[in-house]
Design brief:
CRAL/TRIO N-terminal domain-containing protein, two-stranded antiparallel sheet, 3-stranded mixed sheet, Phosphatidylinositol Transfer Protein Sec14p, 10 helices, CRAL-TRIO_dom_sf, CRAL/TRIO_N_dom_sf, mainly alpha, 5 strands
Length: 283
Amino acid sequence: MHYEDEMDKCPREYAPYRSTLDECDRALAAKELHENEDTRDVSIALVREFIAKHPQIVRCRTDPVFLLRFLRYRKFNVADACATLEGGMTFLMRMRTLYGEEVNTFHPNVQRMLDLDAIVPLGFDRKRRMVILVRVGAMDPKDTTALLQMRLGALVINTCLEYERTQVHGTVWIVDCSGMTMAHVGAWGLSEFHRTNEELRNSVDCSILPTTYGGEQSLKQATDNFRNMFETQTKWFKLEEQFYMDLSVSAPGTSGRSARHSQRNEFPGEESMVGSFRKLTVD
């Protein structure tokens, strides 16, 4: 994996793309995400140009795996991918303004959340999806604020997204509501319920379920595996702490008006839009 020592939104030389996907992964990406050699290389170049020309973005990752998060999420609609990247960075800047250092991945309060084993990736299932276990009762609402719960979730999913297979195949979330109190209500949304462990085992591979849920691996083993995943990606997280947008600068499309008072469109303005997106808009 290629790492950059410094955050540079317009480096003299960009890191090349080195795929970690096998033939099965690439076939699904082509079918579901409209990804192939042509769309991928051109799209990455366009997003890099967008970052380089964006007046508010000062420091941002430009490595392929990071940019492919947004391109794959938006099925290689480059305009939408750029808008999602811009929106995510803007949100991060505002969170830093509101909450300070506590939003940083390596803040002691955030790292303390890891010891709760409250949100743990269990591994890839037979459909190559990353399965993530959420144990709501493990988070004491008296000691863990909504911000810390959100930061833990972000840490977990961002760790998983550094693996291309997660970007292509997605995730499955198992939410264990045992121990939930009224103080927990509203913290999580569920799209599918399994009333018994047997129903759960029929839906999720037993090989990656913890033994407490009738599976074959211990929760400690899953937690240790996740910590290894996180430590492998530590350098990326440290790099992302350098992300910076200057929101005092006029945003694209605001005609010089203050970014704070301007009415922003959903997508970036034409000043920062580059290349021809029409050929790459597939949705």
